[in-house]
Amino acid sequence: MKHAMSDAKVLVATDNADDARQIQKQLTADFAKVQLSTDSDRFLQDFERYAPDVLLLAFDHLDKAQRYYLGLYRHGGSLQQHPHRTVILCGRDEVQEVFELCKQAYFDDYVLYWPQSHDGPRLAMSLWIACREMAATRTDVPQPAELYAHAHHVGELDRLIDREIDAAGQQAPTTPGGAAVDAWARHLKEVIEPARAGTRLLAARIRQIRPVVMVVEDDEFARMLVGRALDPLAWETTFAVDGATALTQMRRHRPDVILMDIHLPGLDGVALTQRLKASPHLAAIPIVMMTGDASKTALLSSMEAGAADFVVKPFTRESLTGKLQAVLSR
Questions:
Q1: Alpha-carbon span 159 to 145, nearest angstrom
Q2: 3-state DSSP call for residue 114?
Q3: What angle, rounded to 10 degrees, do the helices at 317-329 and 220-229 form?
Q4: What CATH architecture applies to the domain 2-136?
Q5: pLDDT tens string 65-99
Q6: What is the value of pTM for the model shown?
């Protein structure tokens, strides 16, 4: 694990070449792959070409770092195509503001760097933690939604086996050699029962995992209603007020299902769905659209964008949870 994290790709973005070389020299003892991006005309190309695991924003002012990151967001969906963690360097007078931005998940971590503190290893430690988080969210690890769907299929298979064996036993008396068929069916059921018991136990434990639902809704009252409708013992719920916030949060925590309003400020629900489906890392997340407009045009545009299903407002708790469970089980 240590070797894998030390091999993580780090991109240092700044408009000051001297700062970039100083930081690169500081990091090379712990990280083998540190790339510099100092040409403002090539910021986007450098990010897309290098696809870093950790992006270090080493600008001398916070507004420069924000403009840089906003530029990545606006052009080509680069942030969604390349999952990564962000660490931002700041000065003493910007610590509180950067702290608030990290709390809101606009950035992942910050390091007080100007003037340099006595804690020299702090920067490397922050990057090390970011690499550890990236390793823990690898896309080849089964997600809760995938496990939930498998648990559903195991339950269906278990019921199918019971039904077929019982049917064979019931038909046995009416067929030649029926006693032998009945004995075989009973024996088969006894032989496979220990394995079935194990799969039932595993399925039951998987069902105890609370799937994460991201609710993308700009209306505060609507968010409150959805929050009340989703049983906290069955669902873990996160909220985003618009598309930009949702995309930022998904860099850190991948939801199992998204419940999204069609009408959002800025990037609307249909456009956001299209962007998510275009990302290899996020395309598999099922999306259930919420709309107060039950017109055929609105629903058709949602489904064509890649939504798995939709609910029409106002909805009941049963209809909402039923839709979410259905898309997770597919």
A1: 22
A2: strand
A3: 70
A4: 3-Layer(aba) Sandwich (3.40)
A5: 999 988 887 765 556 667 889 999 999 999 999 99
A6: 0.58
